[in-house]
């Protein structure tokens, strides 16, 4: 393996959590952007902010019923996602990671799709739909928030088990609540507002994963010095097959279908695809992730009981 290939692979989170279209397309483009940014001294957070402008611009361009305008919007959204890939790769290449960067990275996609949902609703009303189109638009938007939040959470849990805290961005509401309480509204208004938003986001993730919370609690209690290799290997074998679902409910699948319906001038279908195709996949993902978590939680408790009896 040459140094260039090694440097590129080191800029990835993990092959376990990467989607093929990302490895083949977005990550190579993101890597080149990250190299350029590192050369000129541009840090990850400004790259994320720039991606927000391109993603929101895409939504605005989807409002038009002219296909050529929509195509420009599609290219803008693809570039926004390339920048979104680049900011994480740049952070790992330069070891310039921060809590604010993680929050911005998660918020970027929300800004993109808020713009896209608003544009589709307004476009649909121009095409003869009543204001009732906002109902599926809002419901699909809420679905998207939960889908993205849980997919992001499960990927970071997987990375936590196979790479430890240094390779994961896994947070918990207990620590975040303590940090939030230490901030003052009068002295740290901006950061406290961001911290409150991120705390709510993390609590949402935890509320959908009760068995996983038990497992993480047991891990923190029993493996303070690091996870044993056999547990890491066993968890990876059980959990890796579920990673494909975290990718399906996030960017690539939904955007490919969004582009299809824009080409067919039937953009409203996107809302129903989000609710009635991606939500069942989300439910399947959560149910099976909870089964895996319950299995390993009970395994840790059983091992602890056996060790206690042998003393």
List the helices and strands and how they pair.
Blueprint: H1 3-10, H2 20-40, H3 44-62, H4 67-94, H5 99-126, H6 134-163, H7 173-182, H8 189-207, H9 210-222, H10 229-239, H11 243-248, H12 251-263, H13 269-310
Helix pairs in contact: 2-4, 3-4, 3-5, 4-12, 5-6, 6-8, 6-13, 7-8, 9-13, 12-13
What proportion of the residues is helical, as a percent range? over 70%
Termini separation (Å)? 48 Å
Looking at how many chains there are and whether they match, the oligomeric state comes to single chain
Shape: globular
State the low-pLDDT regions, or none: none
Overall pLDDT score: 92
Tell me the domain tally.
2
What is the count of helical runs? 13
Instruction: Give helix and strand order, one letter per element, not per position.
Output: HHHHHHHHHHHHH
Largest sheet: none
Assign the structural class, choosing from mainly alpha, mainly beta, alpha/beta, alpha+beta, or little secondary structure: mainly alpha
Q: How much of the residues is beta strand, in percent?
A: under 5%
Overall number of strands: 0
Radius of gyration: 21 Å
Q: Could you characterize the architecture of this molecule?
A:
This protein is mainly α. The protein has two domains: 1-127, Up-down Bundle (Four Helix Bundle (Hemerythrin (Met), subunit A)), CATH 1.20.120.1760; 130-171 and 200-311, no CATH class. The chain has helices at 3-10, 20-40, 44-62, 67-94, 99-126, 134-163, 173-182, 189-207, 210-222, 229-239, 243-248, 251-263, 269-310. Helix 3 runs antiparallel to helix 4 (67-94), helix 3 runs parallel beside helix 5 (99-126) and helix 7 packs antiparallel against helix 8 (189-207). The longest helix has 42 residues, at 269-310.
């Amino acid at each position: 393996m040459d140094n260039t290939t090694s440097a590129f692979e080191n800029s990835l989170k993990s092959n376990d959590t990467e989607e093929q279209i990302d490895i083949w397309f977005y990550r190579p483009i993101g890597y080149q952007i990250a190299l350029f940014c590192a050369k000129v001294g541009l840090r990850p957070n400004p790259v994320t902010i720039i991606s927000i402008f391109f993603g929101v611009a895409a939504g605005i361009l989807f409002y038009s019923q002219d296909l050529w305008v929509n195509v420009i919007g599609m290219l803008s959204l693809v570039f926004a996602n390339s920048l979104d890939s680049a900011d994480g790769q740049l952070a790992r290449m330069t070891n310039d990671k921060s809590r604010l960067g993680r929050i911005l990275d998660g918020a970027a996609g929300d800004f993109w799709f808020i713009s896209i949902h608003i544009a589709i609703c307004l476009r649909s009303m121009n095409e003869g739909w009543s204001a009732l189109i906002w109902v599926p638009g809002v419901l699909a938007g809420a679905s998207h928030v939960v889908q993205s939040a849980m997919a992001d959470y499960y990927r970071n849990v997987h990375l936590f088990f196979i790479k430890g805290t240094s390779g994961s961005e896994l947070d918990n509401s207990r620590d975040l609540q303590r940090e939030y309480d230490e901030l003052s509204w009068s002295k740290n208004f901006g950061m406290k507002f961001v911290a409150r938003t991120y705390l709510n986001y993390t609590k949402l993730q935890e509320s959908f994963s009760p068995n996983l919370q038990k497992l993480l609690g047991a891990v923190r209690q029993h493996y303070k010095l690091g996870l044993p290799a056999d547990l890491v290997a066993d968890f990876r074998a059980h959990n890796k097959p579920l990673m494909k679902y975290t990718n399906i409910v996030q960017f690539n699948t939904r955007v490919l279908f969004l582009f299809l319906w824009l080409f067919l001038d039937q953009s409203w279908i996107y809302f129903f695809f989000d609710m009635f195709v991606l939500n069942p996949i989300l439910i399947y993902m959560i149910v099976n992730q909870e089964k895996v978590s319950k299995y390993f939680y009970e395994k840790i408790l059983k091992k602890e009981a056996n060790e206690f009896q042998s003393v």
